[in-house]
Fold this protein.
Amino acid sequence: MLARELSIKSPDTALQLATQAESLAIALRWCKGIALSNIVKGWCNYVTGNFGPALENNLTAQQLADSIHNEHIAAMAYSNLGQLYDADEDYTQAINYFNEAIVLNLKENDKWSLERKYVCSIWRKWF
């Protein structure tokens, strides 16, 4: 998804593209597309400091992912929720969401996410 690629360099543009993608996915009744669009929207809102909408986007993505039994998208949502709560210094909630993401990544044998997202994030934060 182009919006995902732009999310760091141009989050406002990425947010617009993700919103358009979500509208299309809704029109197509494509739950996976709606969930993925919300993941990107949540990330864009997170990097621009809009934590309320970021939380809402990621909770929507997580609920949709659970409803369609897509553990990969659910893990992304849980990871993003962990980062949001970490940024808000609610470490108990952050750890709970990170644990959910790790469990799903282990089930999927997603070693890249385990090494890159969690270990690096925890290392930078605490050491």
About this structure: The chain has a mean pLDDT of 86. The two ends are 34 Å apart (CA to CA). Residues 58 and 80 are 7 Å apart (CA to CA). The longest helix spans residues 11-28.
